[in-house]
Write a structure and sequence with these properties.
Elements (H helix, E strand, L loop, with lengths): L6 E3 L3 E7 L3 H6 L15 E6 L5 E10 L2 E7 L3 H12 L5 E4 L4 E6 L8 E4 L8 E6 L11 H10 L36 H10 L4 E9 L8 E3 L5 E9 L2 E7 L9 E3 L2 E5 L13
Antiparallel strand pairs: 1-7, 2-5, 2-6, 3-4, 4-5, 7-9, 8-9, 10-13, 10-15, 11-12, 12-13, 14-15
Length: 279
């Protein structure tokens, strides 16, 4: 297992808190997952979309006391904060950037002493995500490399490194298979497009893990088939693993394709739906 017994600091993550009596009702009308699933022991994975169903932000949400904690991308926190404030209107909530008050850690086992420590809701093999009060930091590793290796091996996207903002539909980013969408919760921003894609089964593109043979291509490098046709683009990667964004009609699992000076081979992840359920 790539992370083994390490405690990994997720230095590219940040914390927003939402407090106030309307915090759950406010998020319920905005995000792709059901906030009623959240508890002190259970986190959810969810996204904020455009009205056209395109990806804007994804995050993890846990509850601590009377506050919801959003574990989000550090570099894009200002944009997420701005959008939430735009939607707040008269809702009785307080939204705060609390990044300097907490560290976010990844580990295979639950960490005691944290503000909250929950199973990563995307995949059982991703272990736990823990929010720890700063400046306390019990990391045993100073790099995110083991975490990246694990999530790439499982075919999990890492926010906007893999999911293109205002371009990618979240079902293309596999958020349904990774427990990030609740199709029974009711309306939210972008819900109509997302539901239509699911029930019409017309998904044409997907993010998928790939094995790299050769130098790791830069993100955005085209993936080309034997006929010289562009069938996708590479996204984030590390060593001999990466994520690729593919046109499904023109790719096959375990079939090598050209990407820059390397060969990339798409791998079927364990969460990928069988043919009769494929969207």
């Amino acid at each position: 297992m790539p992370m083994q017994n390490d405690i990994i600091p997720l230095s590219n993550r940040a914390i927003l808190t939402l407090s106030g009596p309307d915090r759950r009702k406010f998020l319920q009308t905005l995000i792709t997952n059901d906030v009623e699933k959240i508890s002190g022991a259970q986190a959810i994975y969810a996204a904020l979309l455009t009205a056209q169903g395109k990806y804007l932000h994804d995050f993890f949400i846990t509850e601590v006391g009377e506050s919801l904690f959003l574990d989000c991308e550090r570099a894009r926190l200002p944009d997420l904060f701005r959008r939430l404030m735009m939607y707040r209107l008269r809702a009785d909530i307080d939204i705060k950037d609390c990044t300097d008050k907490y560290n976010i850690l990844a580990s295979m086992g639950r960490i005691s002493g944290g503000v909250t420590s929950c199973v990563d809701p995307r995949h059982a093999h991703m272990g736990f995500r823990t929010i720890m009060a700063a400046p306390e930091n019990i990391s045993t590793c100073q790099t995110m490399v083991p975490y990246d290796r694990l999530r790439l091996s499982l075919g999990l996207p890492d926010g906007s490194r893999d999911i293109e903002v205002d371009r990618t539909l979240i079902l293309e980013a596999n958020m349904a298979e990774l427990n990030g969408v609740d199709f029974d919760k009711g309306c939210y921003v972008g819900q109509e497009v997302t539901a239509r894609m699911k029930y019409r089964a017309n998904l044409k593109k997907r993010l998928l893990p790939v094995r790299i043979d050769g130098p790791l291509p830069d993100p955005g490098t085209d993936i080309i088939n034997d006929a010289g046709r562009k069938i996708g683009r590479i996204r984030s990667g590390l060593d001999n693993m990466a994520m690729g964004y593919f046109r499904l009609a023109h790719m096959e699992f375990d079939q090598p394709y050209t990407c820059g000076e390397a060969t990339v081979t798409p791998i079927r992840p364990d969460w990928y739906p069988p043919p009769e359920q494929k969207r």
